[in-house]
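USER:
Before I trust my own judgement here, I would like a peer's view. Write it directly below this note and I will take it from there.

ASSISTANT:
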Amino acid sequence: MKKGMLLAAVLLCGIIARAQSTLVKFTTNHGTFTVMLYDDTPKHRDMFLAEMKKGTYTQALFNRVIKEFVIQGGVLDDTTLLYEQQHPELGAPRFPAEIKLNRYHKRGTLGAGRDNNPEKASFFNQIYFVVGKKYTEAQLTELEKKKGVIIPDEHKKVYESVGGIPRLDGDYTVFGEITKGYEVVEKISQLPTDKNDVPLTPVTFSVTILKKK
């Protein structure tokens, strides 16, 4: 089965198994794609919708693009950390993590960016989409040993057949997945970048709600 067809099948199974209440559309200057926000990470779902309402994701930028890893959008780490240094009276607000065993970094998932804080709490205004790559059984076994974890068999099958970034599991909150148009993210992930992983030509995006119960 071709990669695109297999990815579509995996995502479709996810939709059937977990009918979610919120769908949003990302409109970029390279095409559009649809994202389902998970209901079992309700705080991140609602935080993302609140940021949408504030305009955070209106004509925003995918400002960090790494082939076979992620495309990241919103406010960069350095920008946030510099602002916090300049305004110590505001502290360093972060959003509490919602890390779920069943929400893992398979290809096409949506995660919340963060800095290296011990609580693994998220930034309010930074997201990423997983591109990743396929892994062999031996590579996954080695990763289990390195991290001291057990990767569920179901997840291993997806990482081997579709791909993703298993080393991020348990460290970042995953709160949605692409249901249509993953090829747009794949295309963006392959754009030329500078030495800081910034696309040479700006990649803009805006997010709108398609469905919300």
Summary: The chain has one domain: 3-212. The beta strands are 22-28, 31-37, 60-65, 70-74, 109-112, 126-130, 174-180, 204-212. The two ends are 35 Å apart (CA to CA). DSSP finds six helices and eight strands in the chain.
